[in-house]
Design goal:
By secondary structure, the protein is of the alpha+beta class. Helix 6 runs antiparallel to helix 7 and helix 7 packs antiparallel against helix 8. The longest helix is centred in the N-terminal third of the chain and has 58 residues. The protein is globular.
Length: 341
């Protein structure tokens, strides 16, 4: 009888252990389902709030687009899978063209968010009427004190930032909203004004307050949420404007090249400057490749060596991981924004 009793006891113990494991598994499944349901509810709430904030911004004359949690446009380009994507700014009539989809029409805003129900934020396009918005992005991720840099610029150039809308970012940075005159086309830039200060101008966008990203929520600084965007101080506007494009030199068969004769080392200096820009792109890490390429291409075009340097910049971009299409598009954007396309 003893062996039989031991066997029964062992069998009972195994059954109890299996039941415990099943119970634990069921509990884990319930917890997962509950967590998934909670996330789903939170995502739907975030999407609803994003649409509400976007509609409110549109009422103020700000053109908006839906953004994903990564701060990128939520709608994929309709030309993404085309063998040779055409340069389309929305002329095809389909959504998915980034800032070119931006609108103040509440019916269109609802359509865009309906097409991207996963959007938890919205972007505000810069440079568009009636505000011609300019965003001063004071970054904190570069390890520099961008706010101090802006104060130093203001003291050096004798301008004051007027009371205006200020938005805090999840990383501790700030977006200062200013407006520009209708005739001014302010290009996007990263670190050109000062380290840690990025500019959002024509073709760029700002993450709107109330947006929820994977790092947190963008919020308006108390006391500034009902202010209209203030006019950009004229001195600062001149600092932000692109330098005048250089007229191409026309070769002459009858006149000697006085410039080259007077400055025999100018070609060497241009070559050194060009190689410095190429090295700047080659030093890019993931997450800053497009920004570095765009900055380098802008500097190249501003210095009159854009076309000559473009193939080397493209090669550098490919070596750090961008695709040829991404590199060509970024360089073309730099050419357009500096008046060379």
């Amino acid at each position: 009888m003893a062996p039989t009793e031991r066997g029964a006891t062992g069998s009972s113990s195994s059954a109890s252990s299996a039941a415990a494991r099943t119970s634990a598994s069921d509990a884990a499944a319930r917890d997962l389902a509950s967590s998934t349901a909670a996330r789903s509810v939170a995502d739907r709430r975030a999407a609803t709030l994003a649409l509400a904030h976007a509609l409110s911004a549109a009422e103020r004359g700000l053109s908006v687009i839906p953004l994903s949690r990564t701060k990128l446009p939520a709608l994929r380009s309709p030309h993404h899978d085309d063998p040779q994507p055409a340069l389309c700014h929305g002329a095809c009539g389909r959504p998915g063209h980034g800032v070119y989809d931006a609108t103040t029409d509440p019916h269109r805003v609802r359509e865009l968010f309906a097409a991207a129900p996963w959007a938890t934020g919205y972007g505000i396009a810069c440079g568009l009427p009636p505000h011609h918005l300019i965003g001063i992005d004071l970054d904190t991720k570069s390890g520099t004190d961008a706010s101090a840099g802006l104060r130093e610029l203001a003291l050096r150039h004798l301008f004051t930032i007027p009371p205006t809308v200020v938005v805090t970012t999840p990383s501790g940075g700030r977006h200062i909203w200013l407006t520009g005159p209708p005739h001014a086309v302010i290009p996007n830039s990263a670190g050109r004004l000062a380290p840690g200060i990025d500019i959002r101008g024509a073709g760029g966008y700002l993450v709107g307050p109330g947006s929820r990203t994977e790092h947190g929520i963008y919020s308006t600084v108390p006391g500034t949420d009902h202010l209209p965007p203030a006019p950009c101080p004229p001195t600062l506007l001149r600092l932000l404007a692109p330098p005048p494009s250089r007229a191409p030199r026309t070769p002459s068969n009858t006149q000697p090249d006085i410039t080259r004769a007077a400055h025999p080392h100018s070609s060497n200096q241009e070559a050194q400057r060009g190689q410095g820009l190429v090295q700047f792109v080659l030093a890019a890490h993931e997450g800053q490749r497009n920004t570095r390429l765009f900055w380098a291409a802008c500097r190249a075009y501003e210095n009159g060596i854009g076309e000559a340097l473009a193939p080397q910049l493209t090669d550098a971009a490919l070596r750090v991981g961008l695709t040829e299409r991404e590199a060509d598009s970024t360089i073309a954007s730099a050419a357009r924004l500096t008046g060379h396309a």
